[in-house]
Specification:
444 residues, five-stranded mixed β-sheet, 38% helix, globular, DNA-binding
Length: 444
DNA sequence: TCTGGGGTCCTAGGACCC
DNA sequence: TCTGGGGTCCTAGGACCC
């Protein structure tokens, strides 16, 4: 698509005159550099300053403001490798603060819900809107209004792409952000610009096409989204399965991926961390795993779920190939599905002891709770001895931690020094989620 | 010194059954 | 020695997403 046609596609929108009956309109709203934007909402003085947010453990870059991108800071860049650039360019750095981002995300979704009856919250910074009911309007103008309102109400800048399918809406969204001419909103519904949009989209940038498929397709001469849309169905089916074929249909404007208005019940719940300092003892590993299983158990309690099995995994530092390497994992089943942190902790500890080997420097451990099921429907075994006190204890722990912050109260098994805890040296304050200070309790 | 975390779905192959 | 056909369930691994 040349620049002139993008301009005319967005500034003079005749699209609604071309729309065929039965057409759907899906908008993808995507927050720009979401984590960095969320931090800047509360520090207006850095509004135009290069800003980045780091992953857990302050490991690598996971969000970059436009100014930071312009400096050449790559997504996923290890922090220690760009430290000198950061200093030189005076880049503002934050440790990730998911409590803040989750809260800001809710505000954005609440705003979007004012504009469309059906909203799918796709991720923390993206939502699909069903705008089919608004096809008689100028969708571009409508989405500009959405964009303006989100910015005004939440302080978060967004880009919006509109098309007949989710996969096309993703492409429209990407082009909307890439081309300043669009002003952040691009509508492909019923327009003749779809072909041009597909042509200027690399196949690896299509939603559902990852690195491996992009390489395989490239070797077979399919380098653009347009080429993929025109590929042979049977060949795609053979090479990429039904998922790949769905993507191809979506590129042709045939919707195969419905909006999911109610989030599907989650099937697993994972908590894992790299250690701030390597762990070399079984005791240290047990503590870390106890802490992770407590976190994961609290999460499933919040969702009213119980776990039927527990997977524990441990590994050494794969970035130090000169060190002896070892990683292992094991899944143990629980007699009776539970969300009790003590019961799950016992199983997890058994798992750790089964896979732990002496003589390694461990860098990471994690827990995955599996076979999740509604806690209300759990059926005990014949020899089951349910202990109602366990539930009461867990309930009390949740109440305290919800009010005063996570890990205000925790199990002794999680340890006290916790030398393995992750680094978060650049954490921003709890702008939106602080309820009150933890009171000092005096012994009497 | 320092390289994230949390998910989903599909497929192939093996075990087992009739 | 010859040696069917169909089905289910489970798991590991591979692919993808943000």
């Amino acid at each position: 698509m040349d620049r002139a046609s993008i301009r005319s596609a967005t500034t003079e929108d005749y699209s609604h005159t071309l729309v065929a009956p039965g057409t759907r309109a899906i908008a993808l709203v995507d927050c720009n550099a979401f984590y960095a934007s969320a931090e800047r909402v509360f520090q207006p003085s850095i509004a135009n300053h290069p800003t980045i947010v780091l992953s857990n453990n302050d490991g690598c870059v996971i969000a970059r403001s436009a100014e930071a991108k312009a400096l050449g800071i790559a997504m996923g860049a290890p922090f220690f490798k760009i430290k000198s650039l950061i200093r030189k360019e005076n880049v503002v750095v934050f440790s990730s603060n998911y409590a803040l981002y989750g809260d800001m995300s809710h505000r954005v979704v609440a705003t979007l819900s004012q504009f469309a009856p059906d909203v799918e919250v796709y991720s923390i910074d993206e939502a699909f809107l069903d705008l089919t009911g608004f096809l008689d309007r100028d969708l571009t103008a409508y989405c500009r209004e959405i964009k303006r309102t989100v910015q005004q109400w939440t302080g978060i800048p967004v880009g919006i792409g509109i098309a007949e399918t989710k996969t096309l809406a993703k492409i429209a969204n990407r082009l909307a952000k890439k081309s300043a001419k669009t002003g952040g909103v691009l509508n492909l519904v019923g327009t003749r610009y779809r072909t041009a949009a597909l042509e200027r989209t690399e196949v690896g940038d299509v939603w559902g096409i990852g690195r491996r498929y992009a390489a395989m397709l490239g070797l077979n001469g399919i380098k653009t989204a347009l080429a993929l849309a025109n590929a042979d169905d049977r060949w795609i089916r053979k090479k990429m399965g039904v998922v790949g074929l769905r993507t191809v249909f979506e590129l042709r404007g045939i919707a195969c991926i419905p909006l999911e208005l109610a989030p599907p019940a989650r099937q697993s719940c994972c908590c894992s961390r790299s250690f701030g300092n390597a762990v070399t003892t079984a005791g240290g590993l047990r503590e870390a795993v106890a802490s992770h299983v407590a976190t994961a158990a609290a999460k499933i309690r919040r969702s009213g779920l119980a776990a039927g099995s527990v997977n524990v995994f441990i590994s050494t530092n794969r970035f130090k190939p000169e060190d002896p390497q070892y990683s292992n994992a094991i899944t143990l089943t629980v007699d009776v599905a539970t969300h009790n942190g003590l019961a799950l902790g016992r199983v997890a500890r058994r798992a750790v002891d089964m896979i732990y080997r002496d003589g390694y420097a461990y860098k990471k451990a994690g827990v995955i709770l599996l076979d999740l099921q509604p806690a209300a429907g759990v059926i005990g075994t014949l020899f089951d001895d349910p202990d109602p006190r366990g539930d009461a204890v867990m309930g009390a722990i949740d109440t305290i931690n919800n009010r005063y912050g996570r890990s205000t109260i925790r199990l002794a098994a999680e340890g006290f020094g916790q030398p393995w805890q992750m680094r978060r040296t650049k954490l921003s304050p709890r702008y939106t989620t602080r309820i009150s200070e933890v009171p000092v309790v005096k012994a009497s």
